[in-house]
Design goal:
It comes from Hibiscus sabdariffa. This protein has about 325 residues and is α+β, with helices and mostly antiparallel strands. It has two domains: about 15-130, 2-Layer Sandwich (Phosphorylase Kinase, domain 1), CATH 3.30.200; about 135-320, Transferase(Phosphotransferase) domain 1 (Transferase(Phosphotransferase), domain 1). Helix content is about 30%, strand content about 20%. It has nine helices and 14 strands. The strands form five sheets. It has a six-stranded antiparallel sheet with strand order 2-6-7-5-4-3, with helices on one face. A hairpin with a 5-residue loop joins strand 9 and strand 10. Helix 4 (about 145-165) runs antiparallel to helix 5. The longest helix has 20 residues, at about 145-165.
Length: about 325
Amino acid sequence: MTVVRQRRQLNLCLSLPDVSDRRHFFPLPLDPSATTNAVIASSVTIPAAELERLGVLGHGNGGTVYKVQHKRTSKVYALKVVYGDGDLTARQQVFREREILRKTDSPHIVRCYETYEKPSGDVAILMEYMDAGSLDTLLRSKGTFSEPELAHITRQILEGLSYLHSHRIIHRDLKPSNLLVNKKMEVKIADFGISEIMSPTLESCNSHVGTYAYMSPERFDPDANGGNYNGFLADIWSLGLTVMELFVGHFPLLPAGQKPDWPTLMFSICFGEPPVLPPGASDEFRNFMDCCLQKEPSKRWTASQLLEHPFLIKYSTADN
């Protein structure tokens, strides 16, 4: 537990509002003035009035995520709500997430079924419910993951990233808590509030947002390359840190048990050597990590290339 508490302190965010413990929850059912919009791949409209709140799944980025049930079908969903009287940044993020989820249709991206808006400004997104939580909660409850388990998990994340990148979408905040899991160990990428859809003519972006601890080194240097960086390759660095964290059980850029502070964290990311796996890791896994955690972004492999890496091929039978 000590390691977990210290690791969680590393989730230092940029340009995201502090989360307060809101006492006025989004009223369900919604009033009749609420509007609803069906999204891609949704064949059945789910009126907001037919949703029953079962509990709170969590708070984050200026909103609340509820566990809800469709009264007519008994199917369970997750409902992310951002309040109209909340932070403007949070509202901008939920609209961005809504835009991106409407454009995606992949088994490795959390699915959006409906969106709702109220005249008061409250906005909600109805998404699939992942009943095992996130990779972060699994790490805290079950401990570290083996190489075969990580190959199964990583392949799914890379399938999602490859899909996103092929559609010019960069995530910009990939980390264990934004990777949701169900009891079948299906892993899906979630939380697109600070993601970006790149134009066809651009390969780089310059927005400095996200979680400090999982940012790639080039994202901290505003003067490099005119302040731009390749967002697709920055996602790969975040993936590498995430996978290594699941293997070693703590944030991999700092020794286990070390209390992080801002100067130490910055120096480790920008000037320290990339983390290495402990003794006992296979050569294929070591090489996979090297392909993700290159300080020079042009040396990192892309998501589609990593899907063909020997590490994933070695354990491909684990999925069958």
